[in-house]
Amino acid sequence: MRVECEHGSETKWHQQHSSPHCSTRSKVCPCLDRRRVVLRTPEVTCRRASEVLLKTSTFIRNLPSFYHMPWEDQFVLIQQNWAPLFVVGMAQEGVDFDLREIPATSLLKKILLNQSSTARNERGSSSAGASLAEVQKMKNLLWKFWDLDLSAKEYAYLKGIILFNPGLLANFWGFQEAQKALMEFISTMFHGSLGRFAWILQLITSLRDIDADAIEELFFRPILGEATLNVLLIETLYIKPGWL
């Protein structure tokens, strides 16, 4: 995995990238927040990301616990949880990606050319790229999931736990059921040891730190343009338009 600069030289990932065991909560150099990156092969990666998003939507739509919820509750769950669910989907599908860095001078040229903010908004934010710090956090999480080598059932239970976030709704029966199922499955498969279960729960906490805007900017802005991913997800899941 690497980030490539437009002028041809390569910059190495922060040391966190080299180990799947590194902490996503580790302090990151503030300069990474200012560095912007885009996909090195967007035509390939965006297609795979779209496939992950579609599979995620299909998974959600086929959950009876979700399907029978009120429209407004469905809307809240999707709006708040699509990003961590997408990252889990990327991990399950084994989607890795390379990046190239946008030179800071390109932003300076815009200022020197006295381009208006209106003109920049009309072109959208695709040229601005995503924060390297945020993308780095996501890559770290992907490696952690791959290191655990989760089974299909573990991924399914994990998605249920994430979707039915007890912090969003008063009724979190779906959350309790998914968490119980995951714990029982791990206990059976790993001879009663729940260390793996605790590690997965820790990853769920880290997933909450993922920036949804960075995901949208990196994987979907090149194909969506000015469209909003939240709206696309709602339409895909056939949720009542009146709640948009």
From TrEMBL:
Belongs to the nuclear hormone receptor family. NR0 subfamily. It comes from Ficedula albicollis. This is NR LBD domain-containing protein. One of its GO terms (molecular function) is transcription corepressor activity. Residues 1-240 form the NR LBD domain. One of its GO terms (cellular component) is nucleus. The keyword Cytoplasm applies. It is found in: Cytoplasm; Nucleus. It comes from the Eukaryota. Keywords: Cytoplasm, Nucleus, Receptor, Repressor, Transcription, Transcription regulation. Its main location: cytoplasm. The keyword tRNA processing does not apply. One of its GO terms (biological process) is negative regulation of transcription by RNA polymerase II.
